[in-house]
Specification:
The structure is a single chain. The chain is mostly helical. The protein is built from twelve helices and no strands. The protein is elongated. The termini are far apart.
Length: 191
C-alpha cells in the first residue's frame, strides 16, 4: 500500500515539506498528510514505514538516569563539540538512535552543562555580565571613586582586579538623582 510514495519519499522529512510537494505535483495524486496519519496512526509511523528513523527526543531520555545518558553519549563524544556537528552526526547515523541537540539541552539544562558533564572543553561565555539594580547599587556603594564622572569611573574600574559594571551600565540602571545620592553617601563615609 502507498507504493506510489516510494520514489518521492525524500519529501517526507516534514509535514510542511510533504504538503508543499504534493501541492506542486497534484498530477501525481499522492496521499495527503491526513491520509498518511489516518492509515499509519502518526506522522512518525508513516515516515518509519518508508525508512525514516524517528529522532530521539527529550521524551525518550527524560526518565533515564544521568549515568545512563552519559554511557549512551560517551562513544560519540568527539561529535559533541557544537550543536551543528552533533545534529549532523545524529542525522547521518539514525540507526544509532541518539538524542538530538534539543533533547540534550533540555535534559542537561544547557549545551555547556552537558559538555561539562561529559568532561569536554567549554568555551568561556562572551556574554556580558548581567547586573541587577541591587548589584549596581552595592558596587557603587563599595567602589565609587570621589568623582563619579564617566571617564574617571571607567579608569577606576579597569584598574580593579574584579569585574565592575561600566558607567554606561550604571547610568542605564540608576537615575542621575540615584547616582548623586550614592556619591553623597560615599563621600559621607569617607568623612
Amino acid at each position: 500500500m502507498f507504493e506510489e510514495i516510494e520514489p518521492y519519499k525524500e519529501y517526507l522529512t516534514s509535514v510542511r515539506q510533504w504538503t508543499e510537494f504534493i501541492k506542486k505535483k497534484p498530477e501525481l495524486n499522492l496521499p495527503t498528510v491526513s491520509a498518511l496519519i489516518y492509515h499509519f496512526g502518526s506522522w512518525s509511523d508513516a515516515k518509519a514505514h518508508f525508512g525514516y528513523v524517528r529522532t530521539v527526543t527529550i521524551r525518550d531520555i527524560e526518565s533515564l538516569p544521568k549515568e545512563q545518558v552519559i554511557v549512551l553519549l560517551e562513544p560519540y563524544k568527539e561529535h559533541l563539540s557544537t550543536t551543528l556537528i552533533w545534529d549532523s552526526f545524529v542525522n547521518e547515523n539514525p540507526e544509532l538512535k541518539l538524542p538530538n541537540f534539543h533533547a540534550l539541552i533540555e535534559y542537561f539544562g544547557s549545551w555547556n552543562s552537558m559538555k561539562q558533564v561529559m568532561n569536554l572543553h567549554v568555551h568561556p561565555s562572551n556574554r556580558p555580565t548581567v547586573y541587577t539594580k541591587d548589584d549596581i547599587i552595592q558596587v557603587v556603594k563599595k567602589y565609587a571613586p570621589l568623582s563619579f564622572s564617566p571617564r574617571k569611573w571607567e579608569k577606576f574600574r579597569k584598574e580593579q582586579s574584579i569585574k565592575l559594571p561600566s558607567y554606561q551600565t550604571i547610568a542605564k540602571n540608576l537615575s542621575k538623582d540615584e547616582r548623586e545620592a550614592l556619591l553623597r553617601e560615599y563621600e559621607e563615609k569617607l568623612s
